[in-house]
Design goal:
The chain is of the alpha/beta class. It has a domain of 177 residues: Rossmann fold (3-Layer(aba) Sandwich). Helices cover 45% and strands 15% of the residues. It has 17 helices and twelve strands. The strands form two sheets. It has a seven-stranded mixed beta sheet with strand order 9-8-7-6-10-11-12, sandwiched between helices. A five-stranded mixed beta sheet has the order 1-2-4-3-5. β7 and β8 form a beta hairpin. The radius of gyration is 23 Å and the shape is globular.
């Protein structure tokens, strides 16, 4: 989703700093330490020439590409953060996203520092060969400055990138580091065949679902905003049908939620009776757009999906989509931030006065970095999750079931036996670890929120948790004098 032109002068990084300052007032750490945590440690702005090929005409020319990599904090190494390809990429945005990664990792107890990268391009204008050349050259620039490596800085997919780009990055890295035993750990979000883990592609969306489900299941909190507990029957609207938006919607719908609105870059599709997610995706794939989708009301203003009557709104596109201008018209009782920074501070003030529960991005979309951590551990251990114990668990379970059948004289059905006997494979373990992480982290934030009566919103509580953990790392590791 493209940002509104009237937001062009708003600093995303300054917004993050405002949230930081608001939260740090509830802590008693030295101002110098807080200033150190807040600042970006390393900012690498680069420009490099690449031979580009126009996607339509095939004409070749040389273009100078603008790109960035920001390492916000090395209190834990390696640093971690995605790489996005977008014409909206700029230094301020990358700095903000890198800082959010530091706090995000702290909240979910992932021992990484925060980083982020970006390349200022419109992928639609270039051939696949050109995208590959740009990606490989960007990786080369990172290698030259020691801004990438399994123990230094580990990128991942973000807006406009995916498994393909991660494969090019790891291949380029290994060409410069032949024989490095942990070389595949220089990047996460790779295809399974290149050392990725099952469940990584869906991880951010699944994390959005797990975190929101935990919030919705607390009856006391739902009563305060006029909702009943549980996901089933809740009306949801999703902005953005990329990786995060699609998988978020998928898991909500599978749990019984009703999809009443979706937004893409050129339109919104609304239907109070519910939309078929898979039918939407098929139409989008076949036609290239939802502008002609026949099974809902198509509105050429994408922001209509933000303002539709729903219970849960999931902004899963870019930052600054909910502003002071449209916040008064938002009807959702819960905003589940799948994107980074979708609400401006001014918009948040308006929504909080309307008694809207905002589940903050720096917690809710941490599923991606959590499973990236699992992938990184998998690479460093050189053993696939589940390989050592899956068959042992199945054989042990088989003995238990056989003993129960012998003692009771009753037989378990074939389907039930299959479920009882099955040992956990890699995807089961990854999803279990993600679910446990999202549940525990939610209650850590909520308890901080409830224990300090002066804290009025969940985002501030999340920042308090994050700052406290990062500050503790600085002091206990002796980084801070």
């Amino acid at each position: 989703m493209s940002k509104k032109s009237d937001l062009s002068n708003i600093s995303f990084f300054k917004n993050v700093e405002k949230y930081f300052d608001k939260a740090s007032a509830y802590l008693s750490y030295d101002k110098g330490l807080l200033d150190q945590i807040k600042a970006c440690n390393s900012v690498y702005q680069m420009r490099f020439p690449v031979v580009v090929e126009d996607k339509k005409s095939g004409k070749k020319s040389v273009e100078v590409i603008e790109a960035y990599r920001v390492q916000h904090s090395q209190h834990n190494v390696p640093c971690k953060g995605g790489i996005r390809y977008s014409m909206d990429v700029n230094q301020d945005e990358v700095m903000a996203l890198a800082s959010l990664m530091t706090y995000k990792c702290a909240i979910v107890d992932v021992p990484f520092g925060g980083a982020k990268g970006g390349i200022k391009i419109n992928k639609k204008l270039y051939s696949d060969d050109t995208i590959e050349r740009i990606t490989r050259r960007y990786t080369t620039e990172l290698i030259k400055k020691n801004f990438i490596g399994p123990g230094i800085d580990v990128p991942a997919p973000d807006y406009g990138t995916g498994e393909r780009e991660m494969s090019w990055i790891v291949d380029t890295y290994l060409a410069f580091h032949p024989g490095e035993i942990n070389g595949y750990g220089c990047v996460t979000g790779k295809p399974i065949s290149n050392g990725g883990v099952h469940g990584r592609r869906e991880a951010t969306g699944r994390g959005v679902y797990f975190g929101t489900r935990e919030a919705v299941n607390i009856a006391e909190d739902m009563k305060k905003i006029g909702l009943t507990p549980g996901i089933a029957g809740k009306r949801i609207s999703v902005q953005g049908l990329g990786n995060v938006g699609y998988y978020s919607a998928k898991f909500f719908v599978e749990a019984g939620a009703i999809l009443v609105g979706v937004a893409e870059i050129d339109c919104a599709v609304l239907n109070p009776k519910g939309l078929d997610l898979e039918d939407l995706m098929k139409w989008k794939a076949d036609k290239g757009s939802l502008l002609t989708y026949p099974k809902g009301k198509v509105v050429k203003k994408p922001g209509a999906a933000l303002e539709v009557d729903c219970d849960i709104l999931i902004p899963a596109a870019l930052e600054s989509q909910i502003t002071e201008e449209n916040a008064p018209r938002i009807k959702a009782k819960i905003i589940a931030e799948g994107a980074n920074g979708p609400c401006t501070p001014g918009a948040e003030d308006i929504l909080l006065k309307k008694n809207v529960l905002i589940i903050p991005d720096m917690y809710l979309n941490a599923g991606g970095v959590t499973v990236s951590y699992f992938e990184w551990l998998n690479i460093l251990s050189h053993v696939r999750f589940g390989r050592m114990d899956k068959r042992f668990t199945e054989n042990t379970n088989k003995m238990f079931v056989n003993q129960i059948e012998t003692l009771t004289g009753k037989s378990v059905s074939a389907r039930e036996k299959s479920i009882l006997l099955e040992g956990a494979d890699e995807e089961d373990l990854v999803n279990s670890g993600l679910e446990d992480t999202m549940i525990n982290s939610y209650h850590n934030i909520r308890n901080t929120w409830l224990e300090n009566k002066k804290i009025k919103d969940m985002r501030t509580a999340a920042f308090v948790v994050a700052i406290d953990k990062v500050a503790s790392s600085y002091t206990t590791l002796g980084i801070w004098p």
